[in-house]
Design brief:
The structure holds 2 protein chains of 2 kinds.
Chain A: E1 2-8, E2 14-19, H1 25-49, E3 57-63, E4 67-73, E5 79-85, H2 93-112, H3 125-136
Antiparallel strand pairs in A: 1-2, 1-5, 3-4, 4-5
Helix pairs in contact in A: 2-3
Chain B: H1 8-21, E1 28-29, H2 31-39, H3 45-55, H4 57-60, E2 63-64, H5 65-79, H6 88-91, H7 128-137, E3 145-146, H8 149-152, H9 169-184, H10 186-190, H11 204-231, H12 235-247, H13 257-260, H14 288-292, E4 298-299, E5 318-319, H15 323-331, H16 348-357, H17 366-379, E6 387-388, H18 389-397, H19 403-413, E7 420-421, H20 423-437, H21 480-493, H22 503-506, H23 551-558, H24 560-566, H25 569-572, H26 576-583, H27 587-599, H28 611-620, H29 639-650, H30 663-674
Classes of the chains: A alpha+beta, B mainly alpha.
Chain lengths: 138, 690
Amino acid sequence: MAVCVAVIAKENYPLFIKTVPTDNELKFYYTVHTSLDVVEEKISSVGKNTNDLRELYLGLLYPTEDYKVYGYVTNTKVKFVIVVDSSNATLRDNEIRTMFKKLHNAYVDMLCNPFYKPGENITSKMFENIVLSMLQQD
Amino acid sequence: MEGLKLGAKEQQYYAELFQACDSEGSGKVTGPKASELFLTSGLSPDVLIQITELCGAKRLGHFGRSQFYIALKLVALAQAGIPIKLDALNSGKDIPLPKFSSKGGEQVRFVLSDRKKSSGEPDSVASDSKTNTQLSGQLPPPPVSKKSHGRSLSGQYRGIVPDQPVVVSSQSSQFSSQMGVKDDSPHNSKSPPFSPTQSPPTSPANQKLLLKQNTAPATVFANSVTSVSSAGAPAPSHMTMSGSLDSADATVHLVSPSLLAGDGGHVNPVALSDGAVVTKSHVTIPSVGGIQVHAGHIQNPGVQSQHHQLQGQENGNWTMFEDEESHMLIGSGVKEQYITLDPPNFDSSSISSETESVDDVWTITDEQREYYVNQFKTMQPDLSAVITGPVAKHFFEKSKLPVVELSKIWQLSDMNCDGALSLEEFCIAMHLVVLRRNDIELPEHLPLSLMPYSTLASDEPFAADLPPGSTLKRATPPSPQQIVAQWTAFASESPDSGELHSPAHLANFEFAKPSADPELKIVQPVAVHVLPDGRPVPSEVCDRGRAFSDPAVLYDRTSGQELGETTPPLTKQRANTESHFHDSGQSEASNKYSTPIQGRPRPVPPKKNAAVPAVIRGQLQPPPGSSLDGSSAGGATERPNDISGGQFQSHAPPTPPPRPPHGRSMSVDVKSSSQLIAPAVPPRVSPKEV
């Protein structure tokens, strides 16, 4: 269901970004980029008070008329951003959470591979397959 | 290789031949020359090819002294009608000296060092007669062609007459071409690089050893050829090899497995008994035979194929990951195709059959596994422990494969994604690396034959990581897809799937060694509902045997509400609970219903409170079919109610306090009557409340 899935590193550069094939993919990239501000805002506000209670799932970051953007941050400040189509009304919050969970698990599995250096672009096929599964049907 | 045991006469003869062939005096005989010589032996080219492979010259690129001697010995064996095996080299003490006769064509003049040393131009087709005669007892005219002749040896060698010099000149060219062809053919791949190991022994002791080795290789060739082919070379090649072998003198048998053992080309330090030259890039020929079977640069470290120690050659030809050995892996000169995956231990006869049947590069052979285990031990003495990521990374980087491929291999191997490699995982990874080094592409998913399995003689070939209770035996064929599906399902749900063992156990199915019981097919794992903190829900009475895909569990975390809905029929009974209570008036009914209620374990772990009541409700509902005659009960908003109504009717209400089987009223009544009737029935939320 998602139209775009992105993984952003701690330093806010993209590790992985994948969109549904469309003619204007840049739009999604831009959206993800702008969503980073919202993410930062969310994690900064919570971080001070509840140090380790910050929930990983950030929820809806901001909606636009065409789509909604959801965010998720890991404890190592790796951010996952999912952009979904607004017309997809049936997408519930729980499902988004599930998607993030899957993403997180795939990310962790990929991290376990000693041949992957954290911070480099994600080239893992396995990870990509999981993302593709999310993009296609979900 | 233990070394070729040659009698004094043989020794001398071989030495002379060697010298005759070694026109350049470089201590090695070139392929063409050797091929010329061998062609005159009267053996068929196939046989000669085998011999060449066995002796390791193929790999080496030329005939070192040891290879040459071995080859000569093998020729003798072949001529004597003895199957060419490396292990026969030592046994056939009484084998006559190989005879090389000049067979038409040009005659290669063998140069005998001490006899008539022709100019070291074996190629010359000169009057070999004299040389031949001399050679007769001595060296057959050294094959002029380069070592490549090995394979292409034609049948010239067939009937070598001792007195006749071998004329192989023409053959040499054939040899060379054949050799070249050989290299291209699958056979070539078979002949593992003898190479470095074959380097001419420097000392007499080495010579002896080499001799042995040389002869052995010849046989090994045969074996290797077959083995190689079987190992991984395309089946056809393999077949052809055997076919050709058969067509050959038919005496050529594949070398005993031992020879082939591990010839993967690793430098087998062990094998280098005499400390013979061990070229880094090549696998020493501890086991000459071993060399043959060395696919690519993978060589079994001699350690593994100890059993193949055929004359000391043992394998060792597996991928060598040791630092120095890594060269072998990488650079052993020619990157032949051989796949050493073939278990070295096949004997000639079995080889063909084996190779034909075991034409699966994905299967880990015993020797391979042995090798892998030993490699594992070098890093982690405790076989039940794991190798940490960085250590493994460092190790695999020695293989000089690109990081991308290593990364992919890791992903395929690390089943439980714990960032470390257990023994099984390590074997898989090693195997993939070995295959990769032999130019076999990595699969997208692990082939079943490579699925981790408990190495030790488990009937279940790849049981280790199968879902518990499942078996690849296909007694009831859970199809591989199913297995894979289950596997992936597990993996994907690992964090959430409570029913399975904790994620840490996901991949470690070794302990759950599936028995060979055919009944024990892939059974859906019994759902184990775990509490959020991972503890299994206490009341696991219900052996639902549901698959991991128990929707209840799945959704449990994510959609609590769904639990109620998705749980199995139990949930349907949700609404009935109240009715039950009503029925409780009827002790029997209530008992009947209450019992199942209690006994039935909650299908869904109480992950969400909301779910619990639903579950309970579900539980409460007695099996609809139990005794409900007619769910005629009216007003029942749900089936359960009807049922209860029916129940009421069926059973004479002991006490009719809870009366009308209406859903709502029931609920009301339930409350009132709950104390009376259903002591066992736990208070539950009425459906409508839910």
